[in-house]
Design a protein that fits this description.
The chain has 79 residues and is mostly helical. It contains four helices and no strands. Helix 1 crosses helix 3 (40-58) and helix 2 (15-26) runs antiparallel to helix 3. The two termini are 16 Å apart. Pfam families: DUF6952.
Length: 79
């Protein structure tokens, strides 16, 4: 998971574009937007993170707050 990639996705694409890209990747298709990542798994992770954060931002949270919450959630699921 690369934070700069997620930030770029949140800033560059609409929620609908991100959701369509996530769906395409989940179905092993090429998304209509460019998502950086070493493989499809990392691209899917970036898309999922961007969607989660974008939903929070659209709900009124600041990007940094939403990003921090996401990374905290990920760390919690790993430990």
């Amino acid at each position: 998971m690369k934070i700069p990639v997620i930030k770029k996705l949140v800033e560059s694409y609409s929620l609908e574009q991100l959701q369509a890209a996530e769906e395409a990747l989940a179905e092993e298709q090429t998304p209509n937007i460019e998502i950086e990542g070493e493989d499809e798994g990392e691209q899917l992770t970036h898309a999922f993170a961007a969607i989660w954060i974008k939903e929070k931002v659209l709900g009124g949270e600041e990007f940094k707050t939403a990003l921090r919450a996401y990374t905290t959630m990920v760390r919690g699921s790993i430990s």
